Each structure stands twice: as structure tokens, then as C-alpha cells.
Batch of 4 targets.
Target 1
Amino acid sequence: MSNQHLLVEVKDRILTLTLNRPESLNSFSHEMLNGIVEALNQARNNPEIKVIVLSGAGRSFSAGGDVKTMGQVSPNDVYEHIGVLNTVIKSIRELEKPVIASVHGFAAGAGFNLALACDLIIAANDSKFALSFSQVGLISDGGGSYFLPRLIGPYLAKQFFFTAEPVSAERMYQLGVANSLVPVENLAEETMKFANKIAAGPGKATGMMKKLIDQSFTSTLDEMLELERITQPLMVATEDHQEGVTAFKEKRKAIFTGK
């Protein structure tokens, strides 16, 4: 499942996908993007995998599009490339398992949007986020025009898109875009600590909460109330629910299995 541009590791119920083009700040390639889709598809069907972590090798998370190839590709090539990127974004969002972006260095352009597509962002205190599209006369791709306005509102999102100015990890944390801000030397350790905590939870309930929260942005209150009403009986029938209730009564920590 690993390839030259994507490193794949499974350990302790956690699938780690490491973008591996450090010489180009992990700019995207078809090989990398297709590898992510393949790995997520396998994670979907593997009950042993509870959480996915997405990180970058070398000095940065990802610079997004490869600037070296810009101006040398046809509009049709760009259309095809963004189609592959869109499949990655949708695979992350549709996966009923949490995906954590572990960000250091730069998350720029579509690299920033890839992080936004994840469910949680752990940011190193040295990281910077930049929507650099306007610097090269482009619009956002990778879902940024969808995700960012919903997170910080349209006015600030427009400012970030129009100016392309790098935004510090601390500002992202203050805005609620990053879930946690950690020293860069502790990023991997803190990310795994966070991932393990989620992996130890009730997998089916966690997956359904991800689905419900994402769906809430395009649903009415009545629709969400009915979805909760339909979903909760399914959760009541899970082994994890029974284990949680038993553990609570026995005053011990629950041992969830995702069943």
C-alpha cells in the first residue's frame, strides 16, 4: 500500500499516512493522492483501524500544488488532477472514522485545504497556514472555499484568500481551526496521544457523530432531530453501548471494541 510518495504504517489501531515528497515540501502528485485514496478505502473495510493520522515528511506538512509544474500543464491536465484531489477530499469526509491532520512547517494552498478536510488538526507551534492561490492567479481547490467560510465566516475567509498572507498556528488555534497547539518537537508524540485516546473510544458512535456533525451544515433542525432519533436505537444495540453502561455501573474504565 505504501509508495514512493506516501508512507503507510499501521500501529495500535492507528493508520498513519505520511506525505513523502520532502524535497518539494510534500507537494501533491498523482501517486501520492491515489495512494491516500487506496489507503482510506482499505481503512474503511478494516475494523482494526480506528483512527487515521495524516502527516508530512521533512520540513512541512504540504505545499499543495507543485509550483514547478505550474504554467507547463494544460487546462485539461489541471481538470483531471483536481478530480483526483477531489476524490481524496471526499474519501476523508465520507470515511466514518476520524482523520487527524498533524501539521508542521507550511500547510499551503491545497495542502492547507487537505488539513481542513480532516476532522481534527494538531498544529506544531512553528507551522504556518497560507491560502497562496491568489499569488499565482488561481482560485482555491481542494474544498477550501467550502470548509474555511464554515469555520471562520465569509469575511475573514475572503481576507485569507484575497491576501494569501501566512497565518500563524497560534491564530488558527485562536480561531478554533486547530484543535491543539504543541511544540514542534512534541508534535508526533502529542498527535499519537490524541489519536490513541480517540481509538480507545466507541468506534461506531464516533463514526456516526462525525457523519451527523458534517450533515448538520446542510440540514434543518427538524432533520437533525429525526436523524438522531433514527441513529440512537442503532447505537443502543451495539456491544460498545452495553460495555459502556456496564463499566459505568462497575466504576471502571470501559473497554470498547468498535462493535
Target 2
Amino acid sequence: MSDTAQVEAPPQSATPRRLRGSLGVASIVFIVVAAASPLGVIGGPVPLGIAFGNGAGFPFIFVVVTAVLLLFAVGFTNATPFVKSAGAFFAYVEKGLGRGPGFGAAFAALLSYLALEAGVYGLIGPGANALLQSYGLPDIPWWLYAAVAFVVVTALGYFNIALSGRVLGVLLIAEVAIVLVLDAVVVFSGGGPEGYSSGILSPTDIVSGAPGFAILFAILSFVGFEATAVFRDEARDPQRTIPKATYISLILIGVFYTLSSWVLISANGESTIVQNATDNAGSILATTTEQYLGVVGGHIIQVLFVTSLFACILSFHNIGSRYVYTLADRGALHRSLGQPHARHGSPALASIATSAVVAVLVAIAVLLHLDPITQLYTWLGGISAVGIMLLLVLTSASVLIIFRRNDHGLGRWKTLVAPGLGLVGLLGFTVIVFQNLPVLVAEESYGPFSFGIIALFVIAFALGPIVAARRRIPTAAE
């Protein structure tokens, strides 16, 4: 392309265009773990993984996924000193593979996070409606409750990240606490009607049923852990904070999911758990809690399930808005979206833009009368699952390239063995995601929705090099 056909990116402002914040390890962990929605996972993907995956062997799948992601994290965190800009996937892929693929990764990540944020509104609306109906309020359209949550999320996203961090901290502690209380009661009472489940250690149970499908639901349960690097500019001492937050988040999430899924199986009985989870996937957590903690415990779990979904939405909103901010700051989107708020130091305009896109997606679903759970959430969740897996693979490969190109002084375990093993595991997970994509979007085989999702990411990745070339966007180092 000739120079005359290229459009110069606007010059950098003399004023530093940096987000402000002083997030410590705990605050980032709260944001990232809240994005994983621990209570939502135990009440959603876990029963589905048990019912349609490998039954009593499902908790071991969390061990496998956690191990692979920890291997990925070894390279991801040790490459942090060589990646000076915020942006997580975008920044790492750009550093390893170049600015074109980097911007493609950024657009793909933005698509994934915005889709998931919009999709979870399809869960929180019906969830809030069911909760309030149980207290005698009338049945109203789900999108009205979703709209209330939307307003609150948009308001919190406008201010400094510390405010969202405090809100997420409170909600996260509450939802984790109720599940841990349930876990403790079941464990100290000797398990359920059949005692403790042994499926987690049984090779026969682990490979029974459809373990590939189980892996798919386990992977979805970890979405968002990598976003620790998105908050680089708002972290205290990012060289130490980001790696610590990444490892702590992964370990906490992995241990919590493994323990709580095993307890759920034990509490209901290993011989009947598959049928129970199949018949009552949406209510098994609530009924189990009520059985062991009483009616009050059942009501608490219902309330915290809704607040867990809210925390999930808020976390993904913060992640998505920072991708918008970073892309705008680099000139790939309108530069005004890359201007931090003068007082709050937040990506305020980027946050508003993120809310606008999500509002359009949810409004389309409402106008088309889509079912909020089986269509809106399922379809958009399928988009997110594909995008996150592709981005994890690209980031893992980029990390290996970064270490080859830089004098790092680190051992082979940190720069080759662990990242390489993580990449192999992630490639295997990616194959599983594509094999099960039609099921995830409620198709019997590859059809318009499955192919449509793939087409979206082809466009997103292709858009990166085109935008970078036409706007002559400099690399982060430039």
C-alpha cells in the first residue's frame, strides 16, 4: 500500500493518557474471580458438566484444566516485564507476532468480552424475576430487571476502578462464603447419603460419559482469569502485582471449583447425581443448600446467585471497557474513547461506549423475542468460548516467541517447558471447543450459528492487520 493511501494516526497527546489507580493483589483478584462467578458456576456449568459430561468424575476435570492454565500462566507472567502496555491478550500477541495480529487479537477479545457481558444479562433478568416472585412480587419481563442491573453497572464503570473493586470484593466474599459453609457442613457430616464421592479419584468415572464435553464446561468456568494484565496501568507495582494476582486467582478458582463440585456430588449421592443433575440442573444447588442449611440457607443462595451474576457482569464490563480504551488510545478506535477521566482516572468514555454496544445487543434480543437463557446467553456464550480459546492459544505461542527474541536470563522451565506444555494443552482444549460448539449453541451439527461464530472471528482477526496498516498505528514500544 502506498504512503498516500495511508492515514496518519493522530499525534500523541502531550498529557499522559494513562488510567490511574492503585490496585493491589487483593483488588485485582476480587475483580478477576468475580468475573468467573464462582456461585454462578457451581449452580450452572457444574450441574451441566455432571449431567452431560462425566458424572461423578467431573471434579477431576477442574484439576486438569487448572493444571494446564497454570502452565500457561508460567509463561504469561514471566513475560510481563517485556510487555509494557495494558491489554492482556492484545499486548502479548502484538509483542510476539506483530501489530497486525495484535490488533486482530484485540478485536477478537473485545468481541468475546462484550458478547459474554450481554449474554449474562440474559441470566440475571430471569434470575432476579424468579427470586422476587418467590417473595410475592408479580411476574414481569426479564429485561426490566436486566435494565436495572445495566444502569448500576454503567454508573460504576464510569468511576475509578477502586469503587468497582470494593463492590466486587463484598459480593465475592458473600457468594464464596455461603458455598464454603455448605461445603463444610457436608464434609463434617460425613458426606451425603452414600458418604464421600470417590469419583474424583476413579479412572473409570473420570473417563466415563463424555469427558470432552465436561472439559468444555470446565473451561468456560475460568473465563476472565487472564484479565489480570488488563489492569496493568491501574495496579501498584505491576511487575509484582500482575503475576501474583494471576497465580492466586487461578489457584483459588481451581480449588474452589474442584472442592465444591465434589461436595455437590457427595451431598446428593454418587449413584443418583447424574439423573438428579439432568432433571434439576437449574435448581440442584438451591435444593441441596436448603437440605443442608435449611430454608434460610436456600433463600440466601437464591439472593447471592443473582448478585453473583451482577458481579460477573460488572467484571466483564470493566475488562471490555479497558480493551476499548486501549484500542482507542492506540488509534484503532476513535481517540476520544482513549481519554481517561480527568478526575476519576477511569476509562469513562470507553465504559459508556461499551455499555452502548451491550445495550444494543440486549435490545435486539428483546425485539426478536429471543429466550434470554437458551438463546441470548447460549449463543453469546458460544461466541465467548471460541474467542477466549483462540486468544489463549495465540497468547501462549506469542509468549514463546517473546522469550526467543529477548535476553531474559530465565530458565528453560519458565520460558520453554511450561509454556510449551501449556500450549499443547490449550490446543487440545481448542479442538474440544470446536467439536462441541454446535451443542453449545443448541444445534445438532454445524449450522448457521456455529459457522456464523467462526465467521465473526475470521472478520475480527482480519480486521486487525487492515486497521493497523491503514492507520499506520505504532507498536506499544513506539
Target 3
Amino acid sequence: MSSLRKEQLISAFKQLGLYLQQPDEALIATLNSASNANAWFTASELNKAVKAIAEMLDEQDLAQWFETVEVTKTPKTVGLILAGNIPLVGFHDVMCVLATGNIALIKLSSSDNKLLPFLLNRLCDILPELKDHIVYTEQLKNFDAVIATGSNNTSRYFEYYFGKVPNIIRRNRNSVAIITGKESKAEIAQLGHDILDYFGMGCRSISKIFIPKGYDIKYFFEPLEQYQDIINHFKYNNNYDYNKSIYLVNLQTHYDNGFLLLKEDEGLSSPLAVLYYETYNDVKEVAEKLAQQEEQIQCIVSNTPVQNLQVLPFGQSQHPKLWDYADHVNTIAFLNGLGIRD
């Protein structure tokens, strides 16, 4: 196995990013295949995912990110159990393993098993040396470390089976937004992407908003009308109808704009087609509450700075940078450290 060099890897990922900006017939055919295999992976959502990866592989960002990367000369085999809730959600983990010169032992999600292998094949066309660093498997065996993504339930299973090797085990996380009431219609419309892109199924999807007491919900709902076509997706519509019927039968107070239900709830994880909300008197209350729930939160969006909290502007939660690590665990630092454990 030939050693990989950092300059080679930067160039290869840059070229992959450029390729994704100009989809050819082979990529378009794969997108169609992925859409046919998974009803949640519509053409528009797949295109959003491809565009987000292309943005992530920005030349300047790659150069900056690779400054933190150590390319090992003694590759370790890193088992990857990938999620499939949104398209290409496992790409970044695979990229981290390859960028550090290690071997990615990949267990694909059955929900997302077409597009990622296509992209990795394309990457190997660009840099053939990577072929020896990518292995697919149905069951993880003979690995030196594991990165596993799942639910709170599967995480206990992962901890039992993988607890004896270096690991990153991810659980459920949710994302939230803070509204001050001073936002323009255009800003709330941008927040709609954070809420409804990928049908709200990602850990970076907003599942709860915090609004000031006395806030008129029409100022939130009206700018979202441009997203109303989402209700035409049969699976999303089924979830909307089901949750609406539950709230009506149980006489639970809620708002309804015809495609999104808004319900007051202290929880973070709302059902599909439902957005939880909570009111506040002072944004400091929200900052304190979210600080206490840090382990359950993926990202926070707000167009106003909030004390002691890292926030993203509206419309950016689904556009992570290379250094926006899932669960705030630095995957590169973890992989860099594998050699130190020898």
C-alpha cells in the first residue's frame, strides 16, 4: 500500500468538489437510481446534498482544514457505521478517514447505498491510490477503531460491541433556532431551509424554535408559504396528517399552516412535520437552558448573537463546513491520535 501525500489528497478532494458542481450523465443516472430506491431522497433533496458537499470541498477551506490533518504512514482500519437519514450524511466521516491516510471499512446504510459509493469511485478515479483505502462490508470485523452513528437505542449496542477499541459513538441530536421578533420576512424564509430541507430529518434540521412572549405566529408562518409544496410528498403528508389528527383528537393546542404543525413543548425532538416552540421573556433564559442541554444539541441558528453560544445565521444549518464536526467531536483529532496509541 503506497503512502498518501497531503498535497495529493487536497487536490483529489478539490477535483471531486469541482466535478460535483457540473454533474455529468453518470452522476445524474446515479441520482435517479438513489431517488428510485428511497422515497425520501427526492431529486431536489439529492441535489441539495450534492451541492452542500461541493461547497464543503472549497479549495480555501480544504487548505485550511488540512493544516489540522496528519497523514499517517501506518494506516489503521477504521470501521464506519453510516446513517442514512439524509443523502450523503456519512460522506464527511469517510473523508476524514481517507484524509488521514487510514482505511475506511464502510458499512453503508441501506437507505443511502448508491450515491456515496459512486462519489468514492469517482474520487478513486481521480486518485487511484485511494482504492486500497476503501473497503465495504456488511459486518464490521478486524478494525482498529470505530465511528458509529445511530440512535440513542443503537448507541448502547455500539458501546457494548465497540467499547474496547477507540471509538466515536453518536446518538440523537437536534437543532434549534432563536427568533427575536426583529427578523425580516426574507430572514424567516431562510430559516425555512433549516427547518424543512431534507424534510426535517437531519440532526442539523431545526426541530424547535424559541420565540419571545407575545410573538405573532403569522410573522413566522407567512414567509414559509414558499415551502408549501412539501405537503405533496406522500410520506411527509402521511406524517403531517397523523400528527394533526393526534393533536385534534386529544384537543392539544397547536398552530397549523397546512403543511407544518407548530406545538408548544419543552422537548427538543419534534415528530416529523411538527415544529416545537417555547416562549421566553429574555434571551438570556434561552442561552442558559441551551447550555444545560448542550449534549442534546447539534447546532443553534440565530440572526442575533447570543451570549456564550455558538450560533449560525439563518439558512446555514444544512451547509456545514469541513470543521463542523458532528456532536462537536473533532473527528480529525480522534484519527490523528490513533497512531499515538501504538
Target 4
Amino acid sequence: MSDIRIATAEDQILLDKEAKYCSYGDTVHYIEPPRIFSRCEGSYVWDTEDQAYLDLQMWYSAVNFGYANPRLNNALKQQIDTLPQIASQYLHKGKIELSEMIAVDAKNKFGLDGRVHFNVGGSQSIEDSLKVVRNASNGKSLMFAFEGGYHGRTLGASSITSSFRYRRRYGHFGERANFIPFPYHFRGPKGMTKEEYGSHCVQQFARLFETEYNGVWDPKTNQCEYAAFYVEPIQGTGGYVIPPMNFYRELKHVLDQHGILMVSDEIQMGFYRTGKLWSIEHFDVQPDVIVFGKALTNGLNPLGGIWAREELINPKVFPPGSTHSTFASNPLGTAVGLEMFKMTNEVDYGAMVMAKGKYFLEGLQDLQKRFPIIGDVDGLGLALRCEICGPDGFTPDKATLDFMVEEGMKGDMVVDGQKLGLILDVGGYYKNVITLAPSLEISYPEIDLGLKLLEQLLVRATQR
């Protein structure tokens, strides 16, 4: 095991400047000293010392199709030479055609007519969705969301994100959401199957509508005080928690009974992360609104948006000027988004991602058998989780995972004579979960390499 790594003289000059001139408001130094990166390609990034790191989190699932993907990069380059910019209030071909692709796909899958509205990223698109559902419900400002849910850190998005620490210093935009337990089976009541626990969670939610004294329902007028339920079909920052397949179907039945919209936040799990374009597709329900971002442009351009049912977003109910962003539907972003859709339509990405995910999950399950500190592993497509626990295999152990993350960033592990680092992301309710979001283009040898590097980190963690 290596000693603490020291920043190079050149890096230290930059870090000193960062300390003086950069806001830390959007910065997290997961390790000290933090690495400064100089290039990237495929599943790898390189620091200023040209040390390679295998990245198993791909910018929080924003770079689903690999760093410096040649096809997507070329789409951006070509757009720069034709129509690199135009004000968002003016039309261009890319905006219209990308909207059509998303809307036609939703019509084919969900049987619903709808429209697409763009913005510059995930949190901003969440804000737009809040406007849509508030408007559709005659101004109701209350929302349901899940414990462990994450929807962003702008004022509106943080009000429906379950972590108080994102709101603590800033107050509330409207009202704080009513946070409902998520079927986190590994930490749920014992004696229930995953499906039984999912049904149990729905039944507990449905109890809120039994009488007026639960505070959300007026049985005399059949009116709910809440406008929508914001869901991440697979929880992201909450630890890639995968619910049972019956859960959303049963939940949607309760929502439809009481006139509550379902908003599916696909910002992390969209664009084939789980083997489907939208992760909600796995659960046989029709969402009312879909929010997307991140991998739409493979991290090359800030572009996100929403799809909503026609009744919620047509120009009569959501007229021009309802919301605006200077850079929304920018032509650079829509060009990459269009190319991403063309690329994924040429290859069966669903089958490819599910096969790679199955292979990766089997490798994690093998590690789980050999290392008792792995309490739980699970996965859907290439959204995978590995929960690090104490020797009992259950007590959350954040300290050990923090150690593993730091060791991975030292860049001193050796596999087949190659010196490498490993980039991991930390998530979960107790910050003890490795949330694995590798490139969808990752090769099987790279999956094997990732598993070998994880094994080395687990050995270091258990022998320290």
C-alpha cells in the first residue's frame, strides 16, 4: 500500500489558485490533494502526470457512451461549422427533429401524445416540470417524493430532494415535499420478499387517502392537496436502489385513483443506463411527465428537458413565455442528441447493456461471496450497486468505502503489469454504497479489469 500522494509542483500552483479564486459551492474534494485531469478517452481519464484511471461512474452517468466518443464528438464539430448558436426563441431543425424523436418514441411505448420542452440541464428541467404540474393542478404547490430521492439543488428541485442539507441554509421554494419510504429491500423489514415489501410500501402510502384526517385527501370533494409524485424509477444518489417490478404499477394505480401525476426523473437512469431508453419502461406504467438530461449529449453540452402528456403541455395550457432559458434547445446540444438517437437505433443497445450488466453483476456477486464486508449487490443493466458494510455484512461502513475511494485514486494498483487508478462514486442513504455507472461502451475485458481493481481495493480495506 502506497503512502499519501503529494501534488506535483505544477498541480500545487493550480490548487493554490483554486483555493483563492474558485467558489467551492459546486466543488467536492473527495480526496486530498484532488487530482487535476488532462485528457480522457473511452472508459479512462488521465491526470497531469499521465496516470490512467478506469472510470466506473462516468460523470454521474452523464457520459453513457464513453469519453470522447468519436461519432458524437464529430456531430458537435459539424454543427459548430454550420449553425453553432441561435437564440432559443428562434427555430432550428435540430430542436424540431429531436423533439419529434422523443415524442414519437413515447407515443409508441406509452400510447400517449405529448410534447418536448428543452432547458440547459437536469435541475432546470425539474424546475420546468414543477411549473407544468403546478399549472395542471390549478397551482397546487405540494408534491410527494421518496426518501432517498435526489432531483437537484436549485431551489425548487431541492424542495423535492429528501436531503435537508441541500435546503438548510436557503429555506424553501413553495413547500417541502412529503417524503414517502422507498422499497429498499436490503434494509427493509425481515420476513418479506422483495415483491411483498413493494406492495407493503404502496399499501402504507394508500393509507394516506383512507380518511380526511391523514391530511392529504378531502373525501367530500375527492380532491388531493398534492399535485404530483416525483419518482426516480431507480434511485440514483440514494444508492442505485432497485425496487421490485410490481412496485410502480401498484403505486400508479393509487395515484390515478386520486388524480396525482407521476413525474419520472430519468436524469441519471435515462438513455439506456438500465437497458431501456427510460428506466420507467421496466415497470409497465405510463408516466405523465418524464424529465431527462445528462447523457442526452454524452456530457458534451448542457441540455436537458421534459416530455409531458399533451393535456399538460399543449400551447393552450402552457403558452409561450411560461418558462425560458437563453440556451435552451441550443443547436450544439440538439445535434449531439439527434446523433445519439441515431446511434442507439442502429444497434440493440438494450440487449447489449443487459448482457454486459448481467456479466458485471455476476462478477460483483462473486466478490460478495469472498468478501463479507459486501452486504448487498444488485443491478439493472449497467446501473449497479455494491454496499459496503461492517464484518456482519449489514451495518453501514462509510469509513471503509471512503478508504477504498481514496486508495483507488492513488493510481498505484497494478494489473497485468499496468499501473492504474480506479474512479468510484459514493452514494446511498449511509454513503456506504459504490454506485457503478460504467460506460455503456465498456468492453468485457474492461469489466474484468474493473472487477480485479475492485478486488485489490477490497483486499486493502480488509487488511488495513
